[in-house]
C-alpha cells in the first residue's frame, strides 16, 4: 500500500468511527443537550427547542401557584412538562386569562394550550386536538347513604342546586328536577350537605377534586352520564406534525403509568381514561 493510499484509508477509518459515535448518541433514547436546545424545528415552534404553553395559572388543580405566589403547578402543568421532556424540548408557560387564550393561540403567541380545553364540534372546526388526557362524565352527587337517587330518572320531583348558566342546569331540568339556582359548586355542595337540596349535578373532576381536598366530606356519586367530556391539548390547524409527536408522547406516558400517577396525585383517581 502506498503512503498516499494508507493516509486516505486511515482518514476513512477515522471518519467512519466518528459517524458510529454520532449514530450511537442519536440512538441512545434521551435526546442530547444540543438536540434539546435546538430541536423541534420540524414542529414549527414559536421558539426552536422550546414548547410554549398557554395556561391560566389560576385554575386549581389544573394550573395554579402553590400558596398563591409559589411555583406554577397542577395537573395540566405537569402533563405539559412531561410531554415536552418526551419530545426533548424545554417548556415555557405563558399565563393567560381564559377569555384571551384562544385569541393568543390564533395570534401565534403560544404553541399549545394546556388548560382543560374540552373537545366539541365548534372547536374542532378551528383547532387541532391531541388525544384526550382527561375524561370526565357528568355525575349526580348526593349525601352519603342516600339511596333514593341512583339514576337521572330518579331526579324527577327532587331538588338540585345548579348554576343558571351551566349545562348541568339544563340537564337537571330535563330530568324533571326542581332547580335551586346557585353561584357555583361551593354553594351547591353546601346546600346539599345542609339537607336543603337533594342533589347537585357537576362534572366528575370537580367532585373528585373536592373529596380529595376535603376527605371528610360525606358525599358520593349516585349516577354518571354516558357521554363524558374529553379534554385535550389544543393547537392551530398548521401544527399537525407537533400534534402527531405529542400524541406519541402521550401514548408513552400512558403506557408508563405517568398519566395515572398524575390523576392520583391531583384527584385521587386516574382521570385519563
TrEMBL record:
<keyword id="KW-0732">Signal</keyword>
<dbReference type="InterPro" id="IPR018313">
    <property type="entry name" value="SBP_3_CS"/>
</dbReference>
<protein>
    <submittedName>
        <fullName>Amino acid ABC transporter substrate-binding protein</fullName>
    </submittedName>
</protein>
<dbReference type="GO" id="GO:0016020">
    <property type="term" value="C:membrane"/>
</dbReference>
<dbReference type="InterPro" id="IPR006311">
    <property type="entry name" value="TAT_signal"/>
</dbReference>
<dbReference type="Pfam" id="PF00497">
    <property type="entry name" value="SBP_bac_3"/>
</dbReference>
<feature type="domain" description="Solute-binding protein family 3/N-terminal">
    <location>
        <begin position="50"/>
        <end position="270"/>
    </location>
</feature>
<dbReference type="GO" id="GO:0015276">
    <property type="term" value="F:ligand-gated monoatomic ion channel activity"/>
</dbReference>
<dbReference type="InterPro" id="IPR001320">
    <property type="entry name" value="Iontro_rcpt_C"/>
</dbReference>
<comment type="similarity">
    <text>Belongs to the bacterial solute-binding protein 3 family.</text>
</comment>
<feature type="signal peptide">
    <location>
        <begin position="1"/>
        <end position="24"/>
    </location>
</feature>
<dbReference type="GO" id="GO:0030313">
    <property type="term" value="C:cell envelope"/>
</dbReference>
<dbReference type="InterPro" id="IPR001638">
    <property type="entry name" value="Solute-binding_3/MltF_N"/>
</dbReference>
<feature type="domain" description="Ionotropic glutamate receptor C-terminal">
    <location>
        <begin position="50"/>
        <end position="269"/>
    </location>
</feature>
Amino acid at each position: 500500500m502506498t503512503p498516499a493510499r494508507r493516509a486516505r484509508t486511515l482518514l476513512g477509518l477515522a471518519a467512519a468511527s466518528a459517524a458510529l459515535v454520532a449514530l450511537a448518541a442519536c440512538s441512545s433514547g434521551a435526546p442530547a443537550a444540543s438536540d434539546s436546545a435546538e430541536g423541534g424545528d420540524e414542529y414549527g415552534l414559536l421558539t426552536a427547542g422550546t414548547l410554549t404553553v398557554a395556561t391560566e395559572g389560576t385554575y386549581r388543580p389544573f394550573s395554579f401557584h402553590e400558596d398563591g405566589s409559589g411555583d406554577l403547578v397542577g395537573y395540566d402543568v405537569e402533563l405539559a412538562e412531561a410531554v415536552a421532556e418526551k419530545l426533548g424540548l424545554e417548556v415555557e408557560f405563558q399565563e393567560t386569562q381564559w377569555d384571551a387564550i384562544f385569541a393568543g393561540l390564533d395570534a401565534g403567541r403560544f404553541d399549545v394550550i394546556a388548560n382543560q380545553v374540552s373537545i366539541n364540534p365548534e372547536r374542532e372546526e378551528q383547532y387541532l386536538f391531541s388525544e384526550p388526557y382527561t375524561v370526565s362524565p357528568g355525575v349526580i352527587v348526593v349525601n352519603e347513604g342516600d339511596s333514593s337517587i341512583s339514576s337521572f330518572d330518579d331526579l324527577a320531583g327532587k331538588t338540585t342546586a345548579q348554576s343558571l348558566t351551566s349545562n348541568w342546569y339544563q340537564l337537571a331540568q330535563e330530568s324533571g328536577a326542581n332547580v335551586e339556582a346557585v353561584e357555583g359548586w361551593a354553594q351547591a355542595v353546601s346546600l346539599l350537605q345542609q339537607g336543603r337540596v337533594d342533589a347537585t349535578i357537576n362534572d366528575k373532576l370537580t367532585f373528585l377534586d373536592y373529596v380529595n381536598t376535603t376527605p371528610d366530606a360525606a358525599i358520593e356519586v349516585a349516577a354518571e352520564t354516558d357521554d363524558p367530556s374529553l379534554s385535550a391539548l389544543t393547537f392551530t390547524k398548521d401544527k399537525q406534525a407537533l400534534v402527531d409527536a405529542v400524541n406519541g408522547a402521550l401514548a408513552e406516558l400512558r403506557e408508563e403509568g405517568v398519566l395515572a400517577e398524575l390523576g392520583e396525585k391531583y384527584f385521587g383517581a386516574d382521570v385519563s381514561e
